[in-house]
Structure formats: structure tokens, C-alpha cells
Amino acid sequence: MLDFAPSPETAALAARVRRFVEEVVVPREAEVAADADRLEPVRAGLQQAAREAGVFAPRVPREYGGLGLDWRDSALVFEAAGRSLLGPQALNCAAPDEGNMHLLHAVGTAEQKARYYAPLARGEVRSCFAMTEPAPGVGSDPAMLLTRAVRDGAGWVIDGDKWFITGADGAAFAICMARTDDGPTMFMVDAGNPGFEIVRHTPTLDHAFPGGHCEVRFAGCRVGADAVLGDIGKGYEYAQLRLGPGRLTHCMRWLGIAGRALDIAMDYVNGRDSFKKRLSQHQEMQRLVAESAIEVHASRLMIWQAAWCLDRGEQALHETSMTKVFVAEAVNRIVDRALQMCGASGISEYLPLAQFYREIRGFRIYDGATEVHRASIGIRLLREAAKGAR
Ligand SMILES: Cc1cc2nc3c(=O)[nH]c(=O)nc-3n(C[C@H](O)[C@H](O)[C@H](O)COP(=O)(O)OP(=O)(O)OC[C@H]3O[C@@H](n4cnc5c(N)ncnc54)[C@H](O)[C@@H]3O)c2cc1C
């Protein structure tokens, strides 16, 4: 039998996170919006508050000081945290750290877990994930990877340029994907390595990620044999291991923003008149509310089902792909509608909708562009249909 009810403990935790975000996190938003340099100190302060409130590190296992939630319970908590752009930062469940933690915990050695995972889980450091390269290097097509790692005695030397590396400036380490003679491989690179350079910040539409999106260079970057993450040659496999759940947690967090955008728009139309009636009494406004509510609901159910697949130990590539396409597009539509319903106020910086609008757009591109996911969903289904497998 299908049961959509969360356990009483999870429902209580999600409610606590939602209250924490409303009472502690949202009041700090204006400070960061006015001065981007305040993001890091505000983030640190909010993380301390989240520790004290008992809502810190929801996905981190208990032995590392987290709440040890499974994917289904995380869906509720991440959505509640995601109602503010600062919420996932406060709870230490934001990208790219959340995906890096998942990967390190799954394939890191005991030494790598102690050195990289544990401080990341405690929120003492930030990290980045360095895969994408400027043309003609890897973007949507993983086979275009150009960065090379060559054996040098017992260790390796990495050379290559990366860009759009979120959070690189200020990160303690990078997980770098590089090509070796034995296939694509992931390497742990300390930010202090003299062969690791932050070349510049790329100016972008969005501004809410600490450390921005950076061009980074690995130039004669020497690392030891112990820098290999997992097995040599399994880089693509590990990328899928990271990106499958990673794209679902993006969906969970962005759904929180969508829900808040809808609430803001409903407040606006419930309090403003036009043509001798409340905006909310115009049928077109009711239609916009209904369409957004339907899409929030459908997104949530898709996320929960994909989370259930992950909890069963499945890779759920098909489910997370379909969910990512739908939620990324739905969230963009929901925020766009909310902005429209609020008229000029929606465009102003007096409401957070303009900022939400800027921040959500990238989600249709990163962790697999919508078109790439649609292509792989279609290819998979057609191949299985041809084999009579589905
Ligand atoms: C905000 C943001 C943060 C990011 N953070 C990171 C990060 O931390 N680390 C990292 O490594 N990378 C990061 N990226 C990079 C991201 O992973 C890439 O942008 C993404 O993989 C697409 O690569 P590309 O930009 O080179 O697009 P391209 O590969 O040049 O593709 C351009 C467009 O072509 C279309 N397209 C491509 N292939 C197909 C196809 N098979 N069928 C149909 N259409 C297709 C899609 O519409 C796509 O958007 C980030 C990107 C953004 C926007």
C-alpha cells in the first residue's frame, strides 16, 4: 500500500526547519542582498544557529555529527530549508558540498574521510567539484574531458583548465575529474597546492553561491597516490553516483523557493485591488495560483518517488532525470508567475522574487541541461521498448 505520510518525527523536524528558516534565516536575507561580502560571515553565523537548533547537517550520518536522514526524509527537510536561498547554507545541505559529501562518504578511503569528509560535514570548510571545461573541453558530453593526470613516480601531475566551478574561491579542496591512461579519474586536490590556481570569477546571472563560479587552472599540479578518489578509471561512474542524488537534492531545495514564491504572490493578490475588486477575485489570478500549486504538488510527488528509489539502493537515473527536467522547468514557471502576479513589486528588490528569478535559471543547465536529460530519457525508453523490456 502506498503511504505518503512522513513519520511524526520527520514531520516535526521539517516543521522545526521551516520555523528556523522563517525566524532565523529569512531575517538575514536583506543583509546579504545588500552586500555580497556578508555571505560568508552570515553563513557561518547561521550554521552555528542551526547546530544549536538541532537542524544541522540533515543528510550527514550520525557518527559524523549529522541527523542521518534517508533520502525521503531529506526531501521534506531540504524543501523546508530551501524556502530561503540561505537555508541550505545554514543547514550545510547546499550544493556543491552536499554532493561532494555524498561522494566522499560513498567512495573515500578512511584517511580521505578523516581529512576531507569530516571537516566538510562539520561545516568547518567548503569544497568544490571541478569537471566542466571551457570549449573544446567537457560540458554536456563527458567524453570531451581534456584535463589530464599523468603518473609521476608514486603520484600524479594534473594539467587542465576548468570553469564554472561553484564555490572554488574559498574552498579548502577540489574534487577534480581528469583523464588518465586508464580512464577518467577523480582526484582530491588541496586548495593550497601550488599547482591549483583560481584564475578569475565568472560574472553570472546568479549571485547566491558562496565562492561564486570560478575559472580554475591545474598547472603541473602534483598530488600523491593517496589523492585518487575511489578507483582509477571509474570517474564517470562516480560522477553518476554524485549527480543522480545531487540533481534530486537540487530539486528538493528549489521546490522550497517555488513554494515561498507562490506564498508571496498569494499574499500580494490577497491584499491589492484593481478594477474595483481584490486581485485575488480575478479569475486569471486564481488560475495562476492553481497552476503553480499543481506544479508544486506534482514536483513534490516526483521527488518523493525518486527519493524512495534511492532509499531502496537503486541508482534511479531514469527517475532523477525525469524529476530534474520537470522540477527545473516547473520552478522557473512558478517563480515567473509569482513575479507577474506581483506586478512592478515583483521586479523590484523589495520582494525576494527578482532574486529568486535570477538564481533559479541556471538549474535548467547545471547537473545536466534539460535537453540532455530529455535525450537520455527518450533513448533509454526507445531502446527498452525495442527490446520489449518495458
Ligand atoms: C550556475 C552553474 C553552476 C555550475 N557549477 C558547476 C560546478 O560546480 N562544477 C562543474 O564541473 N560544472 C559546473 N557547471 C557547469 C555545468 O555542469 C555545465 O554548464 C553543463 O554540464 C553544460 O555544459 P556547457 O555549459 O558546456 O553546455 P554545452 O555542452 O555547450 O551545451 C549547450 C546547450 O546545448 C544543448 N545540448 C547539449 N547537448 C545536447 C544534446 N545531446 N541534445 C540536445 N541539446 C543539447 C543544451 O541546451 C545545452 O544547454 C555549472 C553551471 C552553471 C550554469
Outline the structure in words.
The structure is a single chain. This protein is an alpha+beta fold and 390 residues long. The protein folds into 3 domains: 8-94, Orthogonal Bundle (Butyryl-Coa Dehydrogenase, subunit A, domain 1); 127-233, Butyryl-CoA Dehydrogenase, subunit A, domain 2 (Beta Barrel), CATH 2.40.110; 239-386, Butyryl-CoA Dehydrogenase, subunit A, domain 3, CATH 1.20.140.10. Helix content is 51%, strand content 15%. It has 13 helices and 10 strands. The chain has helices at residues 8-25, 29-34, 39-52, 71-81, 87-91, 97-107, 110-121, 235-271, 283-311, 317-341, 343-347, 353-360, 370-386, and strands at 127-130, 148-152, 155-166, 173-180, 183-190, 196-201, 213-223, 228-229, 273-274, 277-278. The strands form 3 sheets. Strands 1-4-5-8 form a 4-stranded mixed sheet, with helices on one face. β4 and β5 (183-190) form a beta hairpin. α1 packs parallel to α4 (71-81), α4 (71-81) crosses α8 and α8 runs antiparallel to α9. 44% of the residues are buried.
Whole-angstrom Rg: 21 Å
Mean pLDDT: 97
Low-confidence stretches: none
CATH class of the largest domain equals Mainly Alpha
**Number of alpha- plus pi-helical segments:** 13
Provide the descriptors you would attach to this structure in a database record.
Butyryl-CoA Dehydrogenase, subunit A, domain 3; 390 residues; binds flavin-adenine dinucleotide; single chain; 4-stranded mixed β-sheet
